[in-house]
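WARN no homologs supplied; continuing
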Amino acid sequence: MRLTFRGFEVLFINIEASGLSSASFPIEIGWVLDDEAGPESFLVRPHATWDFDSGWSAQSAAIHGLRPAMLEAEGLSIDEACSRLDEVTHGRLVVSDAPQHDSWWLNRLYAAAGQRMTWPVGDVERLYGGLAQEAGLDPTMAERLLTHIEQIYPHPHRAGPDALRLAKAARALADPEFRRGFHVT
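OK structure emitted
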């Protein structure tokens, strides 16, 4: 289902990065526009100015399972990545569970391409609150639904499935029929 909120289609986005340091860079970008169609994602081929010595974390790699050779072989160029993102985000409300970090990595991507990111990344928690309010759910019930979704859709630290988890949580708040399937009281 494609979710709309206050007149905008919602795009759920997630970024996997090379690490968490200030030298880190985006390595996988995933999104969901329709939770029934599933997630989409691509790897990012690192830009020549991104330094693996200071920006790559073995600890992060152990979590997401991505390797530099995979990025080189399968990743989109910086320009292709920006074009694809501009196309999919155009006119949509883009939300993330880590908007500050994801915006930082996306800005790093666009800067490497010599471009400026023209779309903001909002906080999915604010969306959840708005959806729960529109659905007339009390905060306790909304929290139970979100906890249940976390159990059903784990956090594998891969961009596409992580974006799908966000979309499913939003749908559980917004869609009464979908919500009834969880039998959460």
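The beta strands are 4-5, 8-17, 26-32, 40-43, 93-96, 122-123.
OK
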